[in-house]
Fold this protein.
Amino acid sequence: MKKRALITGITGQDGAYLAKFLLEQDYEVSGLCRRTSLSNEDRLLYLAVVDHVRLLDGDILDESSVMTALRAVEPHEVYNSAGL
């Protein structure tokens, strides 16, 4: 069984590189990212991992969106790389 990881701020520099690393370690990777009017997946595209991660809309300042993501992913590990 693969380990599952949830990364907040997955579209930022640290989150994207962490996603790439975890995918190389055979993890299932999901990421919580804020919905914006512009696409913010450039780093994930650059690292060629955008098609291998599950992106979830949410905001770490909104408890219900965090809880929804945790229920959806049921992660073994959670990494917070989101800025406040």
About this structure: The beta strands are 4-8, 28-33, 53-57, 77-80. Residues 34 and 58 are 5 Å apart (CA to CA). The chain has one domain: 4-80.
